Amino acid sequence: MANHSQFSFQDASSPIMEELLQFHDHALMVALAICSLVLYLLTLMLTEKLTSNTVDAQAIELVWTILPAVVLITLALPSLRILYMMDEINEPDLTLKAIGHQWYWSYEYTDFKDLTFDSYMIPTPDLPLGHFRLLEVDHRVIVPTDSTVRVIVTADDVLHSWAVPSLGVKTDAIPGRLNQTSFLASRPGVYYGQCSEICGANHSFMPIVVESAPLADFENWSSLLSS
């Protein structure tokens, strides 16, 4: 999760988030190169003597026409690749349905019989020592590590958004509509998120907690909860 005074993104815990971080760094390097070139040209124009040799400038016109197109291609191709990767869901190992309410989340494990629960934020007076304020919930979402999880997101009342930054997941929850996304937690851990769509007075008080556990631990947990 994020730390105090953190300037960058959270550590990536899924392959998609790793790709997003690499594309972010790639785009920043392209922007840095453009800013450096513009700064160099401005400095050159301010320090050199002015000339009027602008009659024959086909080479310059060719460069400032082709160069922006090349820059756009270097940004567009990786971006389209990641978009297709995020949209592709091939034979998920687990399907989870997340339903947004004012102001809590309901979860249904559709591969299991009667495995559903509501997830409420733990109030600050009831928060155990060492847990995070406004982020901890009474029932966490448990998923197996290194398994593709499909998340079907919807809402019961108003617009919500199911977002877990370290997993690279953010999907709008719209009443009467099913949106889907997927993620793969690459290592065991606890990942925090929040509703990312302003949904009313208690919008800030419906966190999301996803816990990635080994497959054996997940099977034990699901058998206990569904029995």
UniProtKB/TrEMBL annotation:
It holds the Pfam family COX2_TM. Keywords: Copper, Electron transport, Magnesium, Membrane, Metal-binding, Mitochondrion, Mitochondrion inner membrane, Respiratory chain, Translocase, Transmembrane, Transmembrane helix, Transport. InterPro entries: CcO_II (IPR045187), CcO_II-like_C (IPR002429), CcO_II_C (IPR034210), Copper_CuA (IPR001505), Cupredoxin (IPR008972), Cyt_c_oxidase_su2 (IPR014222), Cyt_c_oxidase_su2_TM_dom (IPR011759), Cyt_c_oxidase_su2_TM_sf (IPR036257). Binds a copper A center. The keyword ATP-binding does not apply. One of its GO terms (biological process) is ATP synthesis coupled electron transport. This is Cytochrome c oxidase subunit 2. Residues 91-224 form the Cytochrome oxidase subunit II copper A binding domain. The gene is COX2. Component of the cytochrome c oxidase, the last enzyme in the mitochondrial electron transport chain which drives oxidative phosphorylation. The respiratory chain contains 3 multisubunit complexes succinate dehydrogenase (complex II, CII), ubiquinol-cytochrome c oxidoreductase (cytochrome b-c1 complex, complex III, CIII) and cytochrome c oxidase (complex IV, CIV), that cooperate to transfer electrons derived from NADH and succinate to molecular oxygen, creating an electrochemical gradient over the inner membrane that drives transmembrane transport and the ATP synthase. It catalyses: 4 Fe(II)-[cytochrome c] + O2 + 8 H(+)(in) = 4 Fe(III)-[cytochrome c] + 2 H2O + 4 H(+)(out). One of its GO terms (cellular component) is mitochondrial inner membrane.
